[in-house]
Design a protein that fits this description.
By secondary structure, the chain is an all-alpha fold. Helix content is 45%, strand content 0%. Bound molecules: iron/sulfur cluster (2 copies).
Length: 152
């Protein structure tokens, strides 16, 4: 388990809480378990064999956007993003993909987009635009996008 190799990172956390100030998830979900600091502690106790990979545990880590903002903010240099990436890998290996991720993978495989919509109908919203804003431009065709609905 790669988590063992990054165990030192857990001990660098001084629990100051600064990381939650820049976490977009914390702005919406005001519970300690969703904060970077809270997730570090969960990963730490999992690494010590004191926590199981329950469905709830998987949900908590699935809500992280992996944006890395917390890693940049942390004054102790804890590589939070790497910890959360390894936890996601560990959870996927032991419990499989989160249902939401499974749904997205199926949608991309079958429809070529994460919203599972018919590609021919995905740009219909443009018909309600009076004009294309000056700072944007129109592409000839949209590419298949699995990562962002901005590809619409
Ligand atoms: S900012 Fe760093 S040291 Fe402070 S609580 Fe978050 S992870 Fe721990
Ligand atoms: S990587 Fe996850 S925990 Fe860190 S700031 Fe982004 S959403 Fe929050």
């Amino acid at each position: 388990m790669i988590l063992n190799e990054i165990a030192d990172e857990f001990d660098q956390c001084i629990k100051c809480g600064l990381c939650q100030a820049t976490c977009p998830v914390c702005k919406e979900l005001l519970l300690e378990k969703y904060t970077p600091r809270g997730k570090v502690q969960l990963a730490r106790y999992y690494g010590k064999g004191e926590l199981d990979l329950s469905g709830h545990f998987r949900d908590i880590f699935a809500k992280c956007l992996l944006c890395g903002s917390c890693s940049v903010t942390c004054p102790s240099g804890v590589d939070l993003k790497q910890i959360f990436l390894e936890m996601r890998r560990e959870i996927a290996e032991k419990r499989g993909l989160h249902p939401a991720m499974e749904k997205a993978v199926t949608a991309v495989s079958s429809k070529g987009n994460i919203s599972s919509e018919d590609n021919l109908e995905r740009t219909e919203w443009r018909e309600s635009l009076k004009s294309i804003p000056d700072h944007l431009y129109e592409k000839d065709k949209a590419e298949n996008g699995s990562s962002c609905d901005g590809h619409y």
